[in-house]
Every structure is written in C-alpha cells, then in structure tokens.
Design goal:
Blueprint (H helix, E strand, L loop, with lengths): L1 H24 L6 H12 L3 E3 L3 E4 L5 E10 L8 E12 L2 H4 L3 E9 L2 E6 L16 H4 L17 E17 L4 E14 L7 E9 L2 E9 L8 E9 L4 E10 L6 E10 L2 H8 L13 E10 L2 E11 L2 E10 L5 E12 L1 H14 L31 E13 L2 E13 L2 E10 L1
Parallel strand pairs: 5-7, 6-7, 17-18
Antiparallel strand pairs: 1-3, 2-3, 3-4, 4-5, 4-6, 7-8, 8-9, 9-10, 10-11, 11-12, 12-13, 13-14, 14-15, 15-16, 16-17, 18-19, 19-20
Length: 425
C-alpha cells in the first residue's frame, strides 16, 4: 500500500513539475498565428506581434510581448488603433492558489492610441465582432451555467505603469485634431472593481505639461467614493486641487467638495490653453481662487467663492448649465480695482493696429500675425453664453477714485455687451 501511495505521490509531483517547468521551455512565438486568429475572431481586427513572446511560470508568472499592434478600420489614416513597443505582465503566484489575482506589474512601453472619426461617421474605437455562428449564440442551459453566482476573483494591481505614451484624436468631418504626448503614469489599485486607487503621472497637452496626483478611495455600494485630486499645469504655472466626494455613480455622477486654484501668472496659463492667443497684459498677475463646488456633466455651482487677483480681493458665486449651449452666470463683490493698466493695454493695442504703428514695422501689412510667428489675436468664444455682475467698492482711474461701481455684462455669439456701468465720484 505504501508503494502505491509513493507512486501516486511521485506522479503528482511530476505533473506539478511539468505544469511549472514546461511553459518556461516552450517557444511561444510558434503560437502567434493561433493568438492572432483568436483576436480576429473576437474583435474583427488584426493583431500583429512583430517581436518575441516570452512566457514563464517560475519564479512567478510573467508575460512579455514586444512590438504589438492592433489594426484600425479601413479608411483610417493610421493603420493601427493601438500599438506599443512592449508589454510586460507579472502575476504573484501565491494568491492564485486562493482563487485571487494579484498583478504585481503591468508595464506598457511607448503605447500609442489613435482615435479617429472618419468622414462617413465611423469611429475607429468601436469594436464590432464578426457575426457568431449558431453554436456560439445558442442559449446556455442550466446544466452548463456556473454553479456559483459570485462576481469572479478579486483582482489587485500593484503597479500599472505607462512609459512615454501618446493619444491622438482626429475628426475628418470637423477637421479637429488633438494630441496628448509624453504620457508617463503610474496606477495602484487594491481592487480593480472597488478600489482604492492611486494615480501619479504627467503628460503634455497643447504644448503644456500637466501633472496629476490623485487618490480615489474605496467605492462604497457602487455609488460613491472620496476623491483627492491635484492637477499641476505647466509645472508650477498653476495648481488646481479638488477634495471631496463623487456621488451617484449608478445614476448621474457628480462631485461635491472644495476647489482651490493658484497661479503666479494666470495670463500665461490661459494663453497656453487658448493655443497661444495674445491676451490683455493685465491678466498676467497672480491668482488665488477657492470655493465649494457641486458639479456634474450637466451643471455646476461654485459657492462661497473667494478670489484674490493681483491684490484685488472679492467674494461671489458662479453657476453654469451645459445642456445645449453652455451658459455661465457669475456674480462678484470686489473691494478695489485699478483700471489704469487695462486702459493702457487697450490704448497700446489700438495704436499697434493702426497703419504706421509699432506693429506695422514688425511685419508687412499683408502678412497674417500667425505667419510672422506672433501669437494669434484673442477672440471671444462663440459657443458659450455668459452673464457677469460685478460690484466694486473702489475703482482707481487716472489719479481719481470712484466708489460703488456696478458693472453688468453679457457674452453671446462671440460678442460682449456691457449692459450697465455706473460709478460714484
């Protein structure tokens, strides 16, 4: 009897050794055709693995694939929907025994994503699997159904890393093209379904580097989670922070918490975000802004607003709705304003625009400003409506002082209308 048990134990030992060792010695490159066929059957897209595939089980499961790309649709400018120089996945072995998945590392090197909307309206990111055979679409009988109604194994990610990635979006109909480059991100997730999550990284958009530092708490009941987010714009050019809670994930998500914005030169930030447009020089001043924010994709309210712009301090409220044409309403009470820099900038701009002015000597009149290398003139946006109401305690103007100033204005269709202006000497 003991000999039989020894034989059975030996067979199980050999089987376990085979399961652990054999994958380490198999040439997985020979399975490329089978892998690409499976992807084609599932997505209708062509998967290309131009580099090597390396799969090992010991000392921990690891997969490395090089020069991988997934094809786009016919008619797209880019032949690929996505490509990357290499992908590496490492999984901890011990949690697998308990039915859980602990991904130690996912590393994507130079991932490039190309999202296109073609002239006929087709979007390259919409995956349409080929029509399934009758066998594939047959209903599952109760005997074939899984016996446990669980939600699957818990999946944790120790380190999800993106190195030097890029994202390109273009719309052939609207001629819009946007690109985000130099994406370097790191994500940690205790659970992919419930969190908490932590994200750190940076990327470049519109020529400006943006940094992100986010802590997302555990998702409670599939409906809410705490959020602590910092967005660094242009290095230290500006910092936006949000601290609060995201609510209503199962309906219409919204954020409720505090907002803080600080910038040593807000004009530089706004100009960069406006594709280098030339803004009024008085905008190039320090800005501090804070308030209580309640926002969703449909509306926002920024209450208890505190503002410090170039030494001018004020309080107020901003609200907005985004159904149809976006509309913003703002009301502010400000202690004092120096109007002389704004008037001086307006006069200088008018002088430069006249023939023979300082701007005429810099470039021929027939040459557009953008062709001579200068910044494009600032233009008010047409796709937004706004109303503003300012009450200013004191206004300094050409050596004089005015009190109890009231300024009401509207923005519509790219036109700015001053509806009320009153001063007391």
């Amino acid at each position: 009897m003991k000999k039989i048990l020894w034989v059975i134990g030996g067979l199980f030992g050999l089987l376990a050794a085979a399961v652990l060792i054999v994958p380490n010695v198999i040439d997985w490159n020979a399975y490329k055709p089978e892998i690409t066929n499976q992807v084609r059957n599932l997505t209708g897209r062509e998967l290309v693995i131009a580099g090597d595939i390396d799969l090992k089980v010991l000392p921990a499961p690891r997969l490395i694939a090089e020069k991988v790309s997934l094809g786009s649709i016919e008619g797209a400018q880019s032949p690929d929907l996505a490509s990357l120089r290499s992908v590496e996945v490492r999984i901890a072995l011990a949690p697998l025994i308990g039915g859980n998945i602990s991904i130690e590392t996912v590393r994507l090197v130079e991932p490039q994503i190309f999202l296109e909307v073609l002239a006929d309206g087709r979007a390259t990111w919409r995956i349409t699997p080929p029509k399934a055979s009758p066998e594939d679409t047959a209903p599952v009988s109760s005997a074939d159904a899984p016996v446990n109604g669980g939600g699957g194994p818990a999946i944790a990610v120790g380190n999800f890393e993106i190195v030097d990635g890029s994202l390109t979006y273009q719309d052939a109909g609207s001629k819009v093209k946007e690109q985000i480059t130099d994406i370097d991100m790191n994500l940690v997730a205790a659970s992919l379904t419930d969190g908490p999550f932590r994200a750190r990284g940076s990327f470049v958009a519109k020529g400006m580097r943006l940094g992100i530092d986010a802590d997302i708490g555990e998702i409670v009941g599939g409906r809410t989670f705490p959020l602590d987010l910092s967005l660094m714009i242009g290095g230290e050019s500006a910092r936006l922070t949000l601290a609060g809670t995201v609510l209503g994930l199962d309906q219409q998500p919204r954020f409720k918490g505090t907002l803080n914005l600080q910038s040593p030169d807000v004009g530089r930030v706004v100009s960069a975000l406006a594709d280098g447009a030339s803004l009024p020089k008085p905008l190039s001043q320090p800005l501090k802004l804070s308030g209580a924010l309640d926002a969703s994709v449909a509306s926002l309210v920024l209450d208890d607003l505190a503002l410090d712009f170039g030494g001018a301090k004020g309080t107020g409220k901003v609200s907005g709705s985004f159904n149809g044409v976006p509309k913003i309403n703002a009301s502010m009470t400000i202690d004092k304003v120096d109007a002389d820099p704004w008037l001086a900038d307006t006069a200088a701009t008018a002088a430069e625009s006249k023939p023979g002015g300082s701007g005429a000597a810099d470039a021929p009149e027939t040459a557009p400003a953008t062709e001579s290398g200068d910044a494009a003139p600032f233009a008010l946006p047409k796709g937004i409506a706004a109303t503003v109401a300012f009450n200013i305690g004191e206004v300094s103007l050409k050596g004089g002082k005015f009190t109890n100033a009231v300024l009401n204005a509207e923005l519509a269709n790219g036109e700015f209308n001053l509806t009320q202006l009153s001063l007391k000497g």
